[in-house]
Design brief:
This protein has 288 residues and is an alpha/beta fold. It is built from 6 helices and 14 strands. The protein has a domain at 3-192: Spore Coat Polysaccharide Biosynthesis Protein SpsA, Chain A. Helix content is 23%, strand content 26%. It is globular and about 50 Å long.
């Protein structure tokens, strides 16, 4: 079994991504790691090169600055990295997503178990979305609880944006992949960066969705979606996360819920009453 890991980066240092930690966390699983790096204004390229692992293969690409439709430029960059993968499985990690060292055996076991089972086209991970600080996770239907991150590399598949995969069953229509559940989470640290870094990111990337950047204030969130994290972070994050336990992030008590937040409160009540799971799913679960 050959495993290709892949990601894409641009200005990772400037925008506060733990991309070095992300790459290091997955390397034990990889036979090759494709890193697609776009034009940068910082040391992103040099920092990836400094990891110094022969399994890392860097691809440098241009970005279509005129492509401003629904984040499709992100899909283009993800596809460039994906299409350079040569393994049986292609394992995508975003630059703020990290694996825990204790979960690596379960992830490898899932890839080995399902490799002969061609009905399984992808492997799905549970998600821990850290919010505000590294002691708090966001948990509601607004925050996807599971996502496919490993896909069989013999499929006709592509990514219309950075988040998910589509399998081309015909030339005209794509579908979500048929998937099995991996008994492991992905640790997502995108919303732990400073507000300054998040606002800088918004200034850089919102244009690819034809949007004007909005000022990000972590405190403006429904407090009912916040839960305290009581687990242990991946060891690779020790030098990136601040020391200590800051406790549950405190939302602004005067925050007025948006229409979307009110909708998700209703969905959370339905989940609790009927044992449902109502977050967005970009896969069809067929195993596990």
């Amino acid at each position: 079994m050959k495993v290709s890991c892949f990601t894409f980066l641009r200005n990772g240092e400037m925008l506060g991504y733990p991309f070095v930690e992300s790459i290091r966390s997955a390397l034990p699983l990889c036979d090759e790691f494709i890193v697609n790096i776009g034009p940068c204004e910082d040391r992103t390229l040099e920092m990836v090169q400094a990891i110094g692992d022969p399994r890392i293969r860097i691809v440098q690409s241009a970005w279509n600055e005129q492509m401003r439709v629904k984040g499709y430029v992100y899909g283009q960059q993800k596809n460039i990295a994906h299409f350079n993968c040569t393994g049986d499985w292609a394992f995508y990690l975003e630059a703020d997503e990290v694996l825990h060292e204790n979960d690596l055996p379960a992830i490898r076991a899932a890839m080995e178990t399902y490799l002969p089972d061609e009905r399984v086209e992808a492997l799905v991970f549970d998600y821990l979305h850290f919010y505000g600080n590294h002691s708090t996770i966001a948990w509601s239907p607004a925050w996807y609880r599971r996502a496919p991150r490993i896909i069989r590399n013999t499929l006709r598949s592509y990514s219309p944006d950075g988040l998910f995969f589509l399998v081309l069953g015909t030339n005209k229509r794509g579908r979500y992949p048929r998937a099995a559940l991996v008994n492991a989470p992905v640790y997502h640290y995108g919303w732990v960066r400073s507000e300054e870094q998040m606002n800088r990111k918004a200034d850089k990337v919102e244009k690819y969705w034809a949007k004007e950047p909005k000022k990000i204030d972590y405190s403006l969130i429904d407090p009912l979606v916040l839960r305290e994290f009581t687990g242990v972070h991946p060891a690779v994050m020790a030098g990136w996360l601040p020391a200590g336990n800051p406790g549950l992030f405190q939302a602004d008590p005067d925050h007025r819920l948006t229409r979307r937040e009110r909708k998700h409160r209703v969905l959370m009540k339905l989940e609790k009453l009927f044992g449902l799971e109502m977050s967005k799913k970009h896969y069809t679960l067929v195993r596990g």
